[in-house]
Amino acid sequence: MSIISEISENLQKGRLKTVKELVNSAIDEGIDPSKILNDGLLSGMNIIGEKFKNNQVYVPEVLVAARAMNAGIELLKPLLNKEKIKSKGRVCIGTVQGDLHDIGKNLVKMMMESKGLEVIDLGTDVSPEAFVNTAIEKSCHVICCSALLTTTMDVMSEVVKCAEKAGIRDKVKIMVGGAPITREFCERIGADCYTSDAASAADAAVELCAVQ
Ligand code: B1M
Fold this sequence. Notes:
By secondary structure, the chain is α/β, with parallel strands linked by helices. The protein folds into two domains: 3-83, Orthogonal Bundle (Methyltransferase, Methionine Synthase (B12-binding Domains), Chain A, domain 1), CATH 1.10.1240.10; 90-210, Rossmann fold (3-Layer(aba) Sandwich). 56% of the residues lie in helices and 10% in strands. The protein is built from nine helices and five strands. It has helices spanning 3-12, 16-28, 33-53, 59-80, 103-114, 128-137, 155-165, 183-189, 198-210, and strands spanning 90-95, 118-121, 142-146, 173-177, 193-194. Strand 4 (173-177), helix 8 and strand 5 form a beta-alpha-beta unit. Helix 1 runs antiparallel to helix 2, helix 3 (33-53) runs antiparallel to helix 4 and helix 5 (103-114) crosses helix 9 (198-210). The longest helix has 22 residues, at 59-80. The mean pLDDT is 91. Bound molecules: CO-5-methoxybenzimidazolylcobamide. CO-5-methoxybenzimidazolylcobamide binds at residues 42, 45, 48-49, 52-53, 59, 62-63, 66, 98-105, 107-108, 144-146, 148-151, 175-180, 195, 197-198, 201. CO-5-methoxybenzimidazolylcobamide binds next to helix 3, helix 4, helix 5, strand 3 and strand 4.
């Protein structure tokens, strides 16, 4: 079995220590950090996601897998952030109110930082007011909202309305993403940009900051 498959397998079993050891070995072997991330960690998490959906595993298994994934990501961070240069713009990011999923949001943040953006991380369960107040106080070019639940995605529409109400809608761009979000949803709520994955989110944010 390749080391990448071993990372995926052990992540699915929630073996944090082994995942860390394997990620370190993969780094030492000179394997591309993006490959370790995408084909090892993310692919393992996707399999757990499918099993969770089919009731083959339950919340505790998902949590230990998520913990192992975050530990692996921590080791990769410095390598993925290596190309960081001077700030290309400032954004704030968070998972919307009522939603505690943060793995995807953290990946988006990491990719954005690796592209040279300054990222203010508001964490999870972030209210529309918190997004907008931060954008005002910290002069953010972009507000980035992540949601993983169909029950929380509509909070994004509230973020757009809140920005309009605060009079900053023409000064700040609003980006949305997360598993249930689509381009059509983005357009319907009047947000500016939807991307389906962390890497394209980072590219899009750089572009949005450049035109402001
Ligand atoms: Co939850 N969960 N979960 N969960 N969970 C999902 C999302 C679900 C699809 C599972 C399922 O049923 N198949 C389902 C949602 C169903 C729905 O809404 N239709 C679900 C549910 C129901 C729940 C609970 C309600 C379960 C319960 O308690 N009964 C509960 C809700 C808690 C809450 O938030 N209030 C819950 C809890 C949890 C855990 C705590 C156990 C854990 C979260 C741990 C954590 O995040 N710290 C968890 C997990 C891990 C998942 C799954 C298995 C994996 C999510 C994940 O991290 N994926 C998920 C099933 C799945 O997605 N297959 C599931 C990996 C991550 C890298 O992908 O976040 O999609 P993702 O991010 C991607 C893109 O979407 C994009 O980039 C990322 C990488 O490229 N992206 C953006 C994300 N944000 C972006 C922003 C952008 C642009 C792109 O611009 C700003």
